[in-house]
Amino acid sequence: xxxxxxxxxxxxxxxxxxVLVATLVIYTALRTIVGILHRRLSAWSKGQDGNWxxxxxxxxxxxxxxxLIAFSLLLxxxxxxxxxNWQSALSHGWFVALALQIALWVDTxxxxxxxxxxxxxxxGTGYNPVMTTIISIMVLIVVWSVMLLSILANLGVDITxxxxxxxxxxxxxxxxxxxVLGDVFASLSIGVDKPFEIGDFVVFGEVAGxxxxxxLKTTRIRSLSGEQVVCANADLLRQVVHNYKRxxxxxxxxxxxxxxxxxxxxVRQVAERVGEIIRATPKTKFDRAHFLGFDxxxxxxxxxxxxxxxxxxxxxxxxxxxxxxxxxxxxELDVRFALPRRDLRLVxxxxxxLKVAGLPPQAEPEPNEQxxxxxxxx
Length: 378
What we know:
This protein is an alpha+beta fold. The chain folds into three domains: 10-119 and 128-155, no CATH class; 158-246, SH3 type barrels, CATH 2.30.30; 250-333, Alpha-Beta Plaits. Helices cover 53% and strands 14% of the residues. It is built from eleven helices and eight strands. The protein has helices at residues 2-5, 10-44, 52-61, 65-76, 84-119, 129-154, 160-176, 178-193, 233-237, 264-280, 312-332; strands at 201-204, 207-214, 218-223, 228-232, 242-243, 250-258, 284-294, 299-307. The strands form two sheets. A five-stranded antiparallel sheet has the order 4-3-2-1-5. Strands 6-8-7 form a three-stranded antiparallel sheet, covered by helices on one side. A hairpin with a 2-residue loop joins strand 1 and strand 2 (207-214). The longest helix is centred in the first third of the chain and has 36 residues, at 84-119. The protein is elongated, with a radius of gyration of 42 Å.
């Protein structure tokens, strides 16, 4: 009977009416304040994405209406004298609503921060997107985990056993997927250390190509022959990687040889003419040209110069022009390039006799006693 009498309690319904009206008023006031702040900050940051007003405007715009209603209700409940169970719900609900809203704000802020790192200033290229994605995911996991555990602890749940279980489970999962985690942390290392980035031309082992994508587990490279090469991040970091995209200049060393019968004065002139040719070639810096040594079939010259560009095609055009001018210069000096040469001498032996049909045989000289007769061909 007493349970039915509570529904006809005038004070109770008066308190409920006060709570409803106060909730509506507080919600309207909070919505107005949030809307004004959002509009003002958006106006200040117009056309300037990435600054603090824009950041705060987006975070404030992420305020949940449902959580505002819950927050307004919790404030309104303090204006009326309600039963004890309502007061208990008030104490727990206040913390839950506040924790959820703070988590939403932090979530939005972390996502904006990671996006700004990827885009960079003035719309340029920023940090590695893989690195920022991994960091943002780790931060968000921590934020939402702390929020959930805080709510459970506030509601009276013993989270000690839960935290211990999560720790043991985390160790088991880490052991099971240690290969994957190794590649993930290798990806994070690539993002932080930046040995190469998307678009760089790299060479390692037998692979040469442009970096197309750096993922959580693998890096994809478009090779010179056209196929896509997929390499695990951990395996890639174990190798010596040559990054040609960051090369500003090229040091070129090449050799050529001339005949042994070239006079010494012309040998000196060859070195001088090589220096003149390279100095007159655009985008080059002459280093040295020397008569290096005596090789098997040639007098060898070694030439060193610097190409003031990292473009490989431009380097090949320069080398081709130097080779053509060097060819003309040696012709002007009447100096010939060396060719492979062999001198054969027969000492104390007799050449074979060849008989050709229609021709008279020639007289054969008598061999010496020490000569050995070679085979005859008829």
